[in-house]
Every structure is written in structure tokens, then in C-alpha cells.
From TrEMBL:
It comes from the Eukaryota. One of its GO terms (molecular function) is magnesium ion binding. GO terms for cellular component: cytoplasm. It comes from Quillaja saponaria (Soap bark tree). This is Inositol-tetrakisphosphate 1-kinase 4. NCBIfam families: lipB (TIGR00214), PRK14345.1 (NF010925).
Amino acid sequence: MRVPRSLEVWKLGIVNYLDALKLQEKLVSDRKACRIFDTLLSLQHPPTYTVGKRRTDHNLLVPKSNLEKLGADLHYTQRGGDITYHGPRQAILYPIISLRDIGVGVRSYVKKLELTMIELAALYGLEACAGQTGQTGVWVGEKKIGAIGVQISYGVTSHGLAFNIDPDLNYFEHIVPCGIADKEVTSLRRETNLVLPDEELIQDQLISCFAKSFGYSSLIWKKVLLAHKEMGVIGGVILHESALFAEDDGENTYILRPGAEPLLHNLFLSKVRIGISKEVGHSADKVSLIERMSGLYSLDCFILNATFLDDPIREIVLAWSHIDCSILYLVSDKKKEIFPKLSSFSWQIIVLNVKGGSECYTPKLLYIEKLEQFPLIICHLNKKAIGCSVLTVGYVMKPSCVEDFAKRGAFPLFPTQNGLMFVPVSSELPLAPQLQEVDVILHKATDKILSIELDRSSKVSNKITFTRDMQEMQRYLEHHLDFCVIDPLNNIYPLVDRLEIQQILLGLGNVKYEGSHIIRGPHFLKVDNFNELHSVTILAKAGLSLPSIAKPQVACGDADAHQMEIVFSIEDFKSLNVPLPAIIQEYVDHSSTLYKFYVLGEKVFYAVKKSMPNADVLMKLSNSDGTRSLTFDSLKSLPTANDDNQDSGINNCAQTRNQSIDLRLATDAADWLRKVLCLTIFGFDVVIQEGTVDHVIVDVNYLPSFKEVPDNIAIPAFWEAIKNKFDTRVSK
């Protein structure tokens, strides 16, 4: 057998099915005529059902008229096999190879395609096999994970294989996949329950498995931009200067339009390719402003000549030829003269209506009134291109929190490996239209609290005053109870009241296993007046001793919510500045080691941090500066030990410097808290008491940044937690 030396690999990204079909037909013709070498197309499709030569329409279980509601297309093909589904997060290979040149027969070719997918599954510890007689494709037990449908013309192949990484399996419920009834379809994600690597990496691994199965000794990789394709996932954004800058009439200078810099920042952190098209003949201040923005946000600059547009547009096309996705062009309505030329290219044009005139809607022109609408437009177009399997997550939190998540790549505007897009819910826009584009709300309402009034008569939910935008969100959710929220406001209320969370932690007594240590909350006492604490006996009745920590009962939403004091004597209570009512909490000697646990859906991570020293060291610190109690802000000036050692744990399996942590016990506590609090993403802090080795949960918080966990592990787990919450809610 002659072994081919090289294989040309075309990476196409997401391509409409008919475009891919036309490309295959051309390449097959070229391969027959020996104009090209063996070629492998690696791609994905938007949601699409395809029917093979058997034309078994009865295996489509829904009326064809319903497919549009599903966001799916239907196409008839000349490949072998029956009906199947193609969609995002499914790795597809279409080999255009000459079987005669490599000395492989049809039956052997199909077996090698099966082996390709079996080898990929094995990389993830999954045992897969070829189907029984009459069951094509690759199977894991009784569930199908990979499909095969080929066409061979004069020894040259087309069509090929589809391997399920993590597609929306609900689409398979509308068909009898491959005509085989009573058999499930599965995916790599479902079978392994792993946080999978980047989707492109898995596709590359599949290509390598293909090359190994067929004996190709070298691969020639190409990223190909299909010309004149329909609008697909957005891969680049060109911003005309007229949409970003406005002239300040009073100063005769140029300034950024409202919302321009947040938009640039959002696009930059989403790692989308950004360009700016600028005109010639600018004033020095405008040139300086453009240069500053270009440097800050890595903008590609293109000189635009309004009279001769062909050259600059050709420059953009050539510079971005490697982008295998669609391009958006944002321009203001002050530049209507260039609309016709822009519309002649396969770009979607977004027009910022700054003049307030009438809008001329065409399929190529979409109008927006504010720049804050642009991220919503991107998500809308991406969902239209990919289908309903993609979820849009709208996030609501303070800017610093957004920055913490976004700079780690947690809030991309473009679909993640499990089909999530993130868009800010802007207070500059009406709320209802924004939420019509959103499938999930992710919020950190604890940062949106203006005040909390504590009294004995009202529930926590009635005591909280949110910011104006959060109040509007609260009212909207009260009238749309079926909306997926992470997490419902009622579920976070216990975390804003230190008394309530301490009372919840009393239930930790049920969390144990044979031979385990004790895990508990700290002993505590609520006080309305520090004068009540005139005797150590009062503390002792609550299981407390000195030193103790005094904390405000209100955990957030107040300027002094994190103002705390460590108290060493009864007399110190008389002069405390901690807001009332307060919680007196046990101070646990814990060798200056704090374990921060992060719960992201079903997954639990931890990090080891340095912490406050034991009481005897704190006492010396207190006496050294002439004070009695030690005052600190828990967000800023926490007294810590000098040991800089810290570690992190992934999936409860890492080794830590301090071997006394019981990871099984802490993980069981995480599961218990998740069920009791009904929260999706939260954190809690554990210290280990010297002597007793009690594991004491000293704090519980909502939507922490989990910054101690490596991004490549934490962020996919974060996305997975959100997706699973939505899927679970929908299935109920």
C-alpha cells in the first residue's frame, strides 16, 4: 500500500451546510482531476438536519414547518445513511481523498473513520467501539457518540464523520438518528463529566487521530475564509470613527461618545479582533485620541478615503483574511454616503443613529440608538447564526466585579465551548427589551444594596433597598417567575445577614462520616447593645471565650458592614465602634491558615491562604500599639501572619502543605450548603481549630471571584455551572 506523505487540512469554523456542500463538490472535482492533493475539511454547522440517499422522511419526528421554530435547517444529500443532526460543539471532518491512491477499499475506509473517533474517545479515558451489524458509527455502550455518512465518486470521498463533543442533544429527540430506533445519542461531555479543553483543541486532536488512522506523515494546516458566505458567528468588528467620536462644540475638540470606551473595553476583553476605520485630514487632538484608543485596545487602523472606498475595504479584507467568521461594521448615520459600498460586501452594517433622523431598514442595515446596544446586537446575530442551542447570559454587577471576571475571559461576547455568550445588562437602556434577548440572568445583587434595616418584625427581603437598576430588575423578575436567575434573590438573602447564616450553619452537625472530624460554624451571640456583655459568663453560655470577634449583623450594603474588632477583655466591649446589632463570634486559633472553598455548580475547588495569627500573637500586636481591641476592615486590613506559603486545590485532589484538612468532609459540607442555600456559585472559608481539629466555617459569600483557582480550570467550570443550572431548570 502506498502511504500518502501529506494531507492539507482546511479549518473552516462554523459554515452553513449548503456552503460546505458546494465546497466539497468543487474539491471532489479538483481531486479527480489531480489539481489538488488529499484534503480534509474541519468545520461545524449551525443546527441542521440532513437526510441521506434513503430519503426516510418518516424518521423526522416533527413537521417540517416546526423546524424554523427550532432554529434548524433541513437538507437532502447524496451521502449514505439516514437522517442525522449537525450543530455547534460537534466536530465534523469531511475528507476529500483518493481511496485509489492510498489503496483503501470502501469498507476499510469506513472502519478507519470509526477508528478515528474511537482513538479520540480513548484520549479522554472513554471506551468506544464500532456499532453492531446495521448500526453505523461509534458507540459508547448502547449510546451513539459519532456518526458516519459518506459519498464516494470514482474513488474520491466526500461527507464523512461527526463526533459529539458537547452538542445540544435535545435536537436528536426530533429524529430517529441514522434510522436506528430506541437508541440514545450521547456526547464526550456527558460520558466523561469532565471540564473539557477548548473545543478547537479537541477538533485538532480528532484531525491527528484521522491522520494516524490513514497513515498521513505530515499535515499542512490552513485557515480558510469562505467568500460570500451567509452571516455567521461574529469574528471581527470594524468601528468607523464617526461612531466612536463626537465633536465637543463648546471646546472645538473631539471626545469619545457616551458608551464608547466601555464598548471598546468589552470587545477587547472578549478577545475579538477590533479595527477602526479613520478618515484623513484630522486635527492633532483627534489623531492623539485615536492613537491612545488604538494603543489601549489593540485596534487595527485602516485609512478610509470616502471617495475611493475600494482600496481601504480591500485592505481590511486582506488584513483580516484569516478570520473565518463574519465581520460587523459599525458606522454612524452621518456617513450615509458610504452605505451602498459597504453593503456590497458580506458584512453586517450597524448604524448608530446620532442625527435622530428617519431610519431606512434593509437586511444589511441594523440601526441602534446607543452604543450600549451593540453587545446585544452581537449576541443576537450570533444566536441567529448558530441557533437556539446558544444561551445569552446577561450579567448585572458593579464595574469592579465585572472587571475581575472579564479580564480572566469569563464574560466573552462570543460562544464558549458549551454555548454561552455574555452581555452586560445596561442601566442606560430600557430593561425589558434587553431581557428579551437574554436567557439567563447572572447577578451579584449583594453589591447592589444601598441599605438594610434590621428589626424583629420584617423579613430580610423587606429590609433591603437596592440600587435603582436592581430594583427594576427585582420588579421584572417578580412578574417573570420562569426566568432563569443565578441565583434567585430570595436565595441570597441569608448571606447578607450574619445572624441568619450562623443559624443555618448550626445544621452542619448532620455532615459527617465514620471517623471524620467535626465541621461546624463558630459559636456566636447576637447583641443589640454592647453593655449587655458585662460578664464572661454571658459569653460562656454561648460557648464563647476571649478573644472574640465583633461583626456587624449586616454583612453588606452598608459602609461599615466590614468594620470588625477583635476583643480581648470584657471592658473592651464598652468602647467598641462596631455597628449594632452585632454578632460576637468565636475566635478560632488556626495556625494562620485559611482554606477558601469555591463551589461552582457540582464542582468544588479550594485555595490555602495565610490568615490571622493565633490569639497570643494578636494579643502582643494589640499591646504593642497601646490599644485594647484590634480594629480592622475585613476587605482591606485583615491582620495576617508572616508566612507567605499558599497552595491551591483542584477537584479536591491537590496536596496541601497542611495535611490536616479533611477534603472529603469539606466537600460534603459544600454539597450540604448548596442544597440548603439553593445557590449555584458561592464560597466559604474554613479554618482548622488547633487541638480539636474541628473544621470551622467562618464565612459564606455569594459569587466570589475564585481568583486563586487557575483560569483554565475555573472559567470552564464557571460556564458549566451556569449551563447546567439552565438545563436543570428547563427540564423541570
